[in-house]
Design a protein that fits this description.
heterodimer, A: Arc Repressor Mutant, subunit A
Chain lengths: 96, 192
């Protein structure tokens, strides 16, 4: 019997964001938007969900007089991602 | 989204983020040019006119710190993300700069004949570490070349040791810098 996949991460855009953030130390909102091809509104909503789950930290500041949003994965987010990948592998092995 | 699609998405995003890291090559070009120029001028001076004042050319290595700081600031501002590797590399190159500065002081204070070998050995450390960590063979080769030239410099007398420094700066920094710059400009062109 396999565990249910984490519903917070099992969403295309949220999983894409977490996968990018696991590879870098931190990333700007604009970078995430560029890499995921998502709309600003949708990305903003999904980032908020990840933040509420405690998977990412979001810092808002200003850079050259423009607002800047920086996202960074938390230790809890890393753990959730690792568990998600393990569950996914177990799920795929059972299916095979 | 199926399990297979999730795994593919993860792999694609990680690959995108990794592939995105590109060094502009400006720092490597700057130091490759400055060090090779200074050592070559010193060498030519020693085998021809032998005017002590010409060795002041090495002051350029201190002046080059200014454009290096400007390059670092500009690149930091332009970057939309920060990698773990950047911090590690930054630490290694800052330690290298401090070690070179201290060596200058030590060699000024105490007479030592194998100066170029020590500098070359030190040049090899951050160069090899950068090549190793970024899986960038030109810098790996550059680091090894610095160490080989350090040994070679012990067997050739002054001023030929200066040519070892010129060769090291060209192989370790200037050539990798050119390759990085070419890659960077090509990637920038395709993004536009």
């Amino acid at each position: 019997m396999f565990k249910d996949l984490n519903p917070i991460l099992h969403s295309q855009l949220r999983l894409a964001v977490i996968s990018i953030l696991i590879s870098v130390q931190e990333a700007e909102f604009t970078y995430l938007r560029e890499k995921t091809d998502a709309s600003a509104g949708n990305l903003s909503v999904q980032i908020n969900k990840l933040k509420e789950a405690g998977y990412i930290d979001v810092t808002k500041s200003f850079k050259d007089n423009y607002p800047q949003t920086i996202c960074k994965i938390t230790p809890q987010g890393i753990q959730a991602f690792e568990e998600y990948v393990r569950d996914l592998q177990a799920y795929l092995n059972i299916k095979k | 989204m199926t399990g297979q699609e999730s795994l593919e998405l993860i792999a694609r995003m990680i690959h995108k983020a990794k592939r995105d890291y590109l060094d502009s090559g400006l720092s490597a070009l700057l130091w490759g040019t400055v060090i090779s120029f200074c050592s070559l001028v010193s060498f030519i001076n020693q085998v021809t006119v032998k005017i002590d004042a010409i060795n002041v050319v090495w002051v350029l290595t201190f002046i080059a710190v200014v454009p290096q700081i400007l390059i670092a600031i500009r690149e930091k501002r332009a970057r939309k993300y920060k990698t773990y590797e950047e911090d590690h590399m930054g630490g290694i190159w800052i330690s290298f700069a401090i070690a070179v500065f201290l060596l200058n002081f030590i060699f000024w204070r105490y007479e030592y004949t194998g100066e170029p070998a020590v500098y070359l050995m030190l040049y090899g450390v951050p160069t090899f570490a950068t090549g190793y960590s970024r899986r960038f063979p030109p810098m790996l080769i550059g680091g090894i070349a610095c160490w080989a030239l350090a040994v070679l410099s012990l067997f050739c007398g002054y001023p030929y040791t200066l040519l070892c420094i010129t060769a090291a700066a060209l192989i370790a920094w200037f050539i990798p810098g050119l390759i990085l710059r070419k890659r960077y400009l090509k990637a920038k062109e395709t993004h536009v």
